[in-house]
Write a sequence for this structure.
């Protein structure tokens, strides 16, 4: 059965196809001519804006066409580039920008444009459906959000047609999956600071999705795919229609999209991969004893076939004389097989049936639905008003882990009614306290924990753009007002309440009736049902419903954004070297959010009494945090910002001897209702040297990121901790985790310098650029632990002392665990981009070959906590992070007008497990918390080959295929200090070989 949205989409596709069949030959010819003209205009526009335009083979000049009297003429050769607000003749912006055209996006043949973009070398640390699959509580699961330079998604500004989009998370980051992707004609990736032009968050850069605002005709895209392992099956249906009315003064565009990706389900417990993947071998970091470390041996050693010794699949006694007793079918005890070389928490080999590391989904089950419309009206030949509406819903679900492992921390009484008689007797005789410790993977649970995020966006924009004459010059303007709403609901199912679980497993026999009951009378009165965790036995379903109620953790978040913006640009006067141009504008923005968690997670609040879904239970904590995971809390907050900017482009050199040069400067002033005043600026220059085809560019900017709603107003959670005061005495305090409304903006200094070689006379088919970048971010918002805050307060940091109270009577001391502007980031590297195109007709062969390559060399990615006693950490080449030293994307394409083939290589250089680890095998220094020692710190790199092809069946119909990870290269495993998912999907491919095929139709 199809949903109403899917049926509407199918009807749109069928109706469009029927209408197309009825077109006359004359109408078809007109449509083709219009499409060709539009494609040519897009190609010219895209090449004008791209950092490296793919060179085109020589062709005779085209005869100029008569201008359309209904279309605005506009100044010749003017474009808006995403790194600047300036549109001017001959303007070359100093900020490097990489552009992916519609043709590039189609060649990638991905079901989601996000999956194409994250392959770009400059994009590092993005989140998607293969990342955060281990997470229950992060709130970013299933969120397709982009990150440049490894600086994080919160420091990359993602725009749609140069406009802000309401955040899909309380941090304000957007979800690319909610964009109308079929209408995207290009994506500009500005790899440099752009806060002066676009405002807050553009520290790492800007990713701007540009849609086809005057699309005419009908087009659709149908595709499907699956992996080699017969999973992650996907289907995509997209359709768009556009038409002009009333002599093309009224233009209407609508589109609808549906994508379903089934994901890769958890294979469950044990050393086994999903659906035949045989590369998972239980990797882990095994820790040596203190005595071994004192003798010069390393602290950590990477092992495979690791067996955790603190739990077994169906229960394991972990202390005392019965240590090593496990439970099997029917609860029968048997001696556990520990394996060999046991140290710390791990042995090598042994009984690995209860391992949980492979049980995390490799990819989420993912569904996106998007409906978009744009209606515009030409007031005259030069001015347009328009409205757009976008509705999008993205759903995902996944399992973060099987069971709910308890690592030897369960206290089981010798009188537990479910213990086998032999074990109970041994417990009574061998454990004077009458209690023994047990660990279990809880494989008896009838279902794995499963998380279901749903994000629904409603976005409306009303705007106007055009041009006007002032002082004898043409000026262009763009103004819009936006209202956006995003509702995020995260439901977690089949997860246990910690206290109820502990009550349920503490089962004894009722002296009066002989029935097995929960020991606690209070728990029994609240409905406690006993649960047997010893052995492979069916769980008591009444007990399961008691410990894992059907209504699990739930978070409901409402985010709202209102924006009013106006931008004007034009030429001020004709200077001696060219037109002096300027852009200026102002913007008002208001962000607001409110989040509500369920009462068991958030605690008893004003929403009490509990609803029927979460009945009042006196055995649970009224302050919340009762779930095994997913303890969502309540919060709300808002801020507004008023800002204005001005930007100038000043040509100052035009000489046959010395070439041409221009200066680009900008300043933006911002006033935040919470963070106060902030300022961003940039100064850059380009020089078209007298050397044929060589251009130099440089830019220095100050960029800002204001604290987001989550950092300012995070809801309070409370835990108990112990800290040492200045006299060295340990005291008990409440750790109150809360937002900090006194945070100030982060400030970044962004410098870049580059050399561009653009189709010189001696190599007409070659373009190349090399850019060096250096980004330093100060006042970085980062959190401290309670002991660090206490130490800093005693050291005299008064802003921290305001969050510390440890001199009161017992029970009143607390530390507010907040974020502060203490930390700093520093990243430095080199971007390389090149393209070469060669027509093969020179050698008597059909078609043309295009080579394109992009690479980023990350030299440094330093993070400094800013806390006394800590040192900066280096992230470049840390393969557990997001910034390998080298990341490259290379492609080789052949096309002859009807057929096309593209081979792509994605390369990640080798690195280390962690740059702060000291590699040694003997004679090792004593490890420290900051610099542990490790036997082998090396992590291999990877090369992934992709192959795609197209066949233009007719002028309107194109069939295509794509094979990603053609060699089915296994992911590199990243060992952990526990048996969690030992993968880093932010760097390595975790899915395997994937096949896709589809058809595109344009009429």
């Amino acid at each position: 059965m199809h949903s109403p949205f899917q049926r509407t989409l199918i009807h749109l596709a069928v109706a469009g196809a029927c209408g197309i069949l009825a077109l006359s030959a004359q109408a078809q010819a007109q449509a083709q001519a219009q499409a060709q003209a539009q494609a040519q205009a897009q190609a010219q526009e895209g090449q004008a804006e791209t950092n490296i335009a793919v060179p085109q083979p020589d062709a005779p000049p085209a005869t100029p066409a008569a201008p359309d009297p209904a279309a605005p003429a506009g100044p010749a050769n003017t474009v808006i580039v995403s790194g600047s607000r300036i549109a001017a003749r001959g303007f070359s912006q100093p900020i490097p920008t990489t552009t992916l055209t519609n043709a590039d996006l189609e060649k990638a043949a991905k079901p989601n444009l996000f999956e194409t973009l994250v392959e770009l070398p400059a994009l590092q640390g993005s989140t998607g459906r293969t990342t955060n699959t281990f997470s229950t509580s992060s709130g970013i699961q299933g969120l397709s959000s982009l990150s440049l330079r490894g600086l994080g998604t919160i420091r990359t500004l993602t725009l749609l047609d140069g406009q802000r989009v309401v955040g899909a998370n309380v941090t304000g980051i957007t979800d690319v999956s909610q964009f109308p992707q079929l209408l995207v004609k290009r994506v500009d990736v500005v790899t440099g600071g752009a806060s002066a032009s676009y405002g807050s968050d553009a520290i790492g850069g800007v990713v701007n999705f540009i849609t086809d605002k005057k699309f005419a005709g009908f087009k659709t895209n149908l595709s499907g795919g699956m992996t080699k392992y017969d999973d992650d099956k996907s289907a995509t249906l997209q359709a768009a229609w556009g038409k002009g009315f009333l002599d093309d003064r009224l233009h209407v565009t609508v589109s609808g999209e549906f994508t379903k990706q089934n994901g890769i389900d958890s294979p469950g417990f044990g050393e086994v991969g999903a659906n035949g993947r045989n590369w998972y071998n239980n990797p882990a970091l095994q820790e040596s004893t203190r005595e071994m470390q004192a003798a010069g041996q390393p602290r950590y050693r990477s092992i495979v076939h690791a067996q955790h010794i603190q739990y077994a699949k169906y229960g394991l006694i972990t202390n005392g004389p019965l240590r090593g007793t496990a439970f099997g079918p029917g609860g029968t005890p048997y001696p556990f097989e520990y394996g060999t070389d046991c140290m710390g928490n791990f042995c090598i080999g042994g009984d690995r049936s209860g391992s949980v590391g492979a049980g995390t989904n490799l990819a989420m089950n993912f569904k996106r639905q998007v409906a978009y419309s744009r209606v515009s009206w030409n007031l005259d030949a030069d001015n347009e008003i328009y409205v757009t509406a976008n509705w999008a819903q993205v759903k995902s679900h996944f399992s973060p882990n099987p069971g709910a492992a308890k690592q030897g921390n369960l206290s089981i009484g010798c009188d537990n009614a479910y213990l086998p008689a032999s074990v109970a007797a041994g417990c009574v005789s061998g454990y004077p306290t009458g209690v023994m410790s047990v660990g279990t993977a809880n494989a008896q649970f009838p279902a794995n924990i499963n998380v279901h995020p749903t994000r629904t966006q409603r976005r409306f924009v009303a705007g106007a753009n055009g041009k006007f004459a002032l002082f004898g010059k043409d000026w262009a303007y763009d103004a819009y007002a936006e209202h956006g709403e995003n509702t995020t609901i995260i439901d977690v199912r089949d997860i246990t309440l910690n206290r109820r679980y502990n009550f349920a497993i503490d089962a004894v026999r009722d002296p009066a009736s002989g029935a097995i009951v929960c020991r606690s009378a209070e728990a029994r009165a609240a409905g406690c049902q006993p649960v047997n965790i010893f052995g492979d036995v069916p769980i008591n379903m009444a007990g399961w419903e008691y410990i894992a109620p059907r209504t699990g953790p739930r978070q409901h978040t409402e985010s709202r954004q209102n924006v009013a913006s106006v931008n004007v640009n034009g030429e001020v006067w004709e200077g001696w070297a060219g037109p002096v141009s300027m852009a200026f504008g102002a913007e008002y923005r208001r962000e607001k959010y409110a989040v509500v968690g369920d009462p068991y997670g958030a605690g008893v609040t004003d929403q009490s009494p509990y609803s029927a879904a979460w009945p009042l239970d006196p055995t649970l904590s009224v302050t919340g945090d009762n779930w095994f995971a997913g303890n969502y809390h309540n919060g709300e907050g808002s801020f507004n910002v008023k800002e204005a900017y001005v930007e100038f482009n000043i040509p100052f050199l035009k000489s046959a001897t010395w070439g041409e040069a221009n200066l680009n400067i900008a300043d933006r002033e911002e006033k935040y209702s919470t963070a106060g005043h902030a300022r961003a600026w940039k100064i850059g220059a380009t020089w078209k040297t007298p050397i044929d085809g060589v251009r130099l560019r440089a830019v220095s900017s100050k960029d800002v990121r204001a604290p987001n709603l989550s950092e300012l107003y995070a809801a309070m959670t409370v835990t108990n901790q112990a800290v040492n005061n200045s006299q060295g005495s340990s005291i008990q305090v409440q750790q109150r985790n809360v937002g900090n409304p006194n945070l100030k903006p982060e400030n970044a200094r962004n410098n870049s310098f580059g050399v561009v070689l653009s189709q010189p006379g001696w190599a007409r088919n070659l373009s190349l650029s090399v850019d060096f970048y250096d980004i330093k971010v100060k006042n970085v918002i980062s959190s401290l632990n309670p002991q660090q805050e206490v130490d800093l307060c005693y050291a005299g940091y008064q802003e921290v002392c305001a969050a510390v109270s440890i001199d009161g009577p017992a029970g009143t001391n607390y530390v507010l665990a907040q974020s502060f502007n203490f930390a700093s980031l520093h990243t430095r590297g080199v971007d390389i981009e090149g393209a070469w195109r060669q027509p093969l007709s020179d050698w008597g062969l059909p078609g043309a070959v295009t080579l394109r390559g992009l690479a980023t060399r990350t030299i440094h990615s330093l993070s400094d906590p800013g806390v006394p006693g800590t040192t900066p950490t280096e992230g470049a080449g840390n393969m557990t992070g997001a910034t390998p030293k080298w990341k490259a994307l290379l492609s080789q394409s052949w096309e002859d007008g009807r057929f096309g083939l593209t081979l792509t290589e994605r390369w990640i250089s080798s690195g280390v497990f962690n740059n702060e680890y000291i590699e040694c095998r003997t004679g090792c220094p004593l490890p420290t918390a900051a610099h542990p020692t490790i036997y082998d710190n090396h992590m291999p790199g990877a090369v992934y080959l992709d192959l795609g092809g197209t066949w233009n069946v007719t002028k309107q119909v194109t069939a295509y295929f794509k094979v990603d990870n053609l060699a089915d290269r296994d992911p590199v495993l990243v060992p952990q200090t526990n048996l969690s998912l030992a993968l880093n999907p932010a760097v390595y491919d975790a899915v395997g070989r994937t096949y896709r095929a589809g058809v595109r139709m344009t009429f």
